[in-house]
Design goal:
Layout lengths: L3 E5 L3 H13 L3 E5 L2 H11 L3 E5 L7 H11 L5 E5 L4 H10 L3 E4 L4 H15 L8 E4 L2 E4 L4 E4 L2 E4 L2 H12 L4 E3 H9 L4 H17 L6 E6 L3 E6 L3
Parallel strand pairs: 1-2, 1-3, 3-4, 4-5
Antiparallel strand pairs: 6-7, 7-8, 8-9, 10-12, 11-12
Helix pairs in contact: 2-3, 6-8
């Protein structure tokens, strides 16, 4: 069975080009012209991945994403956006986007990003991606941390950063690598944001004193576990 993609885009020519390209790659494609249409078609047909423009009439992509996240916390969502500020990108991720690509874009890049999201979130959707970090369980798919009978929701950026640190536990992860993975660029504003999110993660993990996130000055950050 082919993966079903819901493409929500109000530019008719772009919709035609992207949909035809995706179909030649073997995907089933459902198209929608705005956020209201996209929400209705998601409710009616579901999707393995959603590709959505941000600026659309009637209901924009951000508003649609908020509604879809109430219905499905885990369906991969990729934004197409002409907006370029870090604030706009951050808003999209905080709403629940998994990735974004800036207009104009190469179709080949879009295909690469779709395949990466489907590898990460596709397959058996009943199986969440998890890391055991000391006494915590970090659920990447639902972006939650749990300890005993308590559970905390992480923001998209906190979860993305922790995923990279947990996948390289005991190893230094380069700060530039983290920023490119999270924000697709390395600049001063992102460095300040990264430091702030690391501080939030330290607070979230403070209930297990064996866990540390060490700042390797000039290099990056390392998640460590002290052996009892």
């Amino acid at each position: 069975m082919s993966n079903r993609i819901l493409l929500v885009e109000d530019e008719a020519d772009l919709t035609l080009i992207v949909a035809d390209t995706l179909r030649t790659q073997g995907y089933e494609v459902i198209t929608a012209v705005d956020g209201i249409d996209g929400l209705c078609k998601f409710k009616a047909h579901g999707a393995d991945i959603i590709i959505a423009d941000v600026m659309m009439p009637r209901m924009d992509g951000f508003s649609m994403a908020r509604e879809i996240r109430r219905l499905s916390p885990t369906v991969p969502l990729l934004f197409l956006t002409a907006k370029s500020t870090i604030e706009d990108v951050e808003e999209g991720f905080e709403i629940g986007a998994n990735d974004y690509i800036k207009k104009p874009f190469e179709l080949r890049e879009l295909l690469v990003r779709i395949k990466a999201l489907l590898r990460r979130y596709g397959g058996n959707r009943n199986e969440d991606v998890k890391f055991v970090i000391g006494r915590y369980v970090f659920n990447v798919t639902t972006q939650t941390l749990s300890l005993a009978d308590k559970e905390w929701c992480l923001s998209h950026f906190e979860a993305k950063i922790l995923e990279h640190l947990a996948a390289n536990i005991g190893k230094t992860v380069d700060a530039s690598e983290l920023m490119i993975a999270v924000w697709q660029r390395d600049d001063l504003s992102n460095r300040n944001s990264l430091h702030g999110y690391i501080h939030k993660l330290r607070r979230a993990l403070r209930h297990d004193p064996s866990i540390s996130i060490i700042n390797q000055r000039g290099f990056g950050y390392m998640l460590t576990l002290r052996k009892e």
